[in-house]
Specification:
Elongation Factor Tu (Ef-tu), domain 3, 5 domains, 7-stranded mixed sheet, Rossmann fold
Amino acid sequence: MKDYSTKNIINIALTGHATTGKTTLAEAMACNAGIVHKMGSIDTGTTVSDYREYEIENQHSISLTLLNFEWQEKKINVLDSPGYLDFHGEVKSAMRVADLTGVTISATDGIDIGTELCCGYAEKDYGIPKLFIINMTDKEQANYDTALSALQDRYGRTVFPLTLPVNQGVGFNQIADVLRKKILTFKTDGSGYFSEDVAEGDWNERLEGLHNELIELIAESDENLMEIFFDNGELSEDELRNGLHHALTSDGLIPVFCTAAESNVGVKRLMDFISKYAPCANDFEKVVGTKPGSDEEISYTPSVDDPLSAMVFKTISEEHIGEMSFFRVYSGKVNVGDDLQNVSRNQSERMRQVYFMNGKNRKDASQLIAGDIGAALKLKNTHTGDTLSNSKNPIQLQGIPFPTPNTNKAVSPKTRGDEEKIATGLSILHEEDPTFLYRVDPELKQTIISGQGELHLSISLKRITKRFNVELAIEVPKVPYRETITSNSNAKYRHKKQSGGSGQFAEVWMRIEPNERGSGIDFGNSLVGQNVDRGFVPSVEKGVNQICEQGVIAGCQVVDVKIDFYDGKMHPVDSNDMAFQIASRHAFSDAIKNAKPKLLEPIYKIRVKVPDEFTGDVMGDIASRRGKPQGMDSEGTYQIINAELPLACLHDYSTALKAMSSGRGMFTQEFSHYQDMPPNEAQKVISIWETARAAGE
């Protein structure tokens, strides 16, 4: 591959809902560009993109993949991203470094939730233009017009078809081209080659009308072009080309293309358009960041002459190779052997090896310039989301806004001694996929993993199991219930122990009362006189804190209690720190039991997004989970349901929602508050704890 300047580099992320053919489209592009001589298939596990063992096994994309090729004097970097909602962290990574997103849509299914999400990322998170690719136009139930109409209804009149199917359905091989006003006939051998013919009859009339509408739309996006159009009634070829580029870049036009990627129909025409009209790396005026350690904004231009700024958007760990960091250069350039600054971690890094990537295949690169994307091997302390720059001109780029987890599991080794292997595996997975989180919860005494759904966690754990040869026990995480009281109570407890020599003696008098919700434990003393030395107050408080951590009625943390240590007794010889700790624990436990204790449960806010036809099912399911609806909103053809649910009723919600909505629903969750637990539910928790305690567990 020859060297390309920044103005000739195009970065496009292929995004969209699952099973819309993104990977097959990327494969067709690679084949057309000569990267592969024959298109691979997902079914046989032979595509350039889905090369990882776990992707071949599951037959769908799980991680984003970088491809690059030359097309019409441009270098095009394609970021093929997963479609399943469980892996949308990869989508966000891809779009963070792209200048354009191609949103794929099934001609049989139309707009889906993945469409909505990807368009939202482009508009709200990254401010990059988009185009729509209505794929699978060769399927029996394909309906391009319906899909196009839905897109226009949802995203406005700037959504405009540039190619249309002439004979959609089985045998599809003809496309009407609005820009050329021609009928394109593609070969059926998968080569992607096509011939052009003049449109006749109804198609001629239709293409003429659409072509004129397109010119008007392009003119509207630029005041100068609008004046030229009003004066002349048309635009020259150069004016049309420049105007189309400007309209796409400024979101004044959202082009729509039809393709059948599996048979390589329409793909070359799409590639032609991208190379001619898509925004290049230097089409954006500046690279904006902040001065490290402050909010002061600084900016560079996307030029090789400006100081270096680069973003690491993906990290993978491969056996026998090590960690590989994928990054985009926004300004300046990176040479092999350069000493760089990881601004995010204040660490120095040396670029020892740099590669251009096509799936798993890598090619040595001596340099990466502004606008280009590649990978570096064995950076010692650089992770996804980090900024690389020069130490003399540091800049901190905005990171990647990863989605928050909504599904949790508890894991533990089945074999003693595998703890270290599992810890290593969890760490590696998090490095590769920042949406996969893990923590050791000291309260629950469990290792908790968190992700975007059951599928996400299932595949992640399979990878650990296989790579590190360990077996994992997986269970539902414990719920962090809380114990509190509803009335005032007093308690006295004497601890006395004599077994020869010095003994133990302490007597603690304590009163408790309910405190405000969320106030925690308020410990104080109102001691008067000389019955108890003030030096034992910390001992009593320590004993109280121990019971607050251990719980009294269900083994849960005690909260929102006001405690007054008001009197007691001591012995001049036998009283000590431990004696007062023991006495205070018993006194506090007795006081809790006499203060009408109750359990509190964590309540989470959820935001569910589903197509309108599933609203009733979702609402019914929320009610069955002791949930309380908090209102509804609409967003296009989707309904937004806000509700509050107990955490205990959320552990399988991701799977249930997918089943209820045919995989088209999604949700987010966040902690809201603690509230009183229904007595019947509380008794279940208490009984389980009492049984476990009786059994010595």
